[in-house]
Amino acid sequence: MQLSYTLLSVPPLLLLVLMIVFFAVTGGGSTYLFRKYIRMRVLQSHNEVTGNIFSCAGGLYSLLLAFVVFLVWDGFNDAAQHANMEFSVAKGLYRDIQYYPDTLESHKIKQVYLQFMEAVVQDEYPAMARLESSPVSSKKAFDELFRVVEQMNPQTPALTTRSAEIFRHLNELATHRSLRQLDAGTGIPLEMWIPLLIGGFIVMVFAMMLDIENLKLHIFMSAMLGSFIGIVIYLIILLDYPFSGYLSVQPTGYVEIINWAKQGL
């Protein structure tokens, strides 16, 4: 949902405070207005039934929240795992190129490979953070890398084996890169956000309808319930898009390889 992506631009601590305050004010304020303007004598006589239904609704809503939290956490872990696998293959490919016996050919491939990695770090990851498609620069750089590797002309059986290993790693890199790009656009759809928010509203309505003698205590309890819902929603927003926001997956592996190249390693 676009709103959750927009909220990711807010600093995480400030976002947490805003979510807690918003839902606490919603819960406590709605309870105050309900107690002030709505008089229902039936509340006292049916307080036990209302409490039981509130317990059931709260339990079901807790299951829904837990399901969504595990869903976004699993998606975040999958994205991080795919990125780490890509980094691992990228490092293996760099070593294959670095120690390829034909220095003239390996130097050319290395230059193209470094251009690709710089395009990924400088263009591709920022584009994924903005939920945009992969930029043309990184696609062209990757296509050029494939072209250069395919044009390798090993002269001995040993070089043929080494070049085949480079091409195998390059294909593995393409696979993990595609998986990472698919993970970048994942997020909770609007169709899931709607029941999530409606369920929270229903639970807070049941909390309003409880007949508690002390008004301040009733408002405080409703505010705490809203705060807890806000905290869980905050976690969902924070993990919703793996490559955006404070906890986003970063191209640490590519940056490390670029630093190796600059140091001549």
Please provide a brief summary of the model:
With 265 residues, this protein is mostly helical.
* Secondary structure: number of strands: 0
- How would you characterize the largest beta sheet? none
Low-confidence stretches: none
Question: What structural class do helix, strand and pairing data support?
Answer: mainly alpha
- Average pLDDT value? 84
Outline the structure in words.
By secondary structure, the protein is mainly α. The protein has one domain. The chain contains 10 helices and no strands.
Secondary-structure blueprint:
Layout: H1 2-7, H2 12-37, H3 42-45, H4 47-98, H5 103-129, H6 136-150, H7 157-184, H8 190-209, H9 215-240, H10 252-263
Helix pairs in contact: 2-8, 2-9, 4-7, 4-8, 4-9, 4-10, 5-6, 5-10, 8-9
Provide keyphrases for this structure.
single chain, 265 residues, mainly alpha, 10 helices, rod-shaped
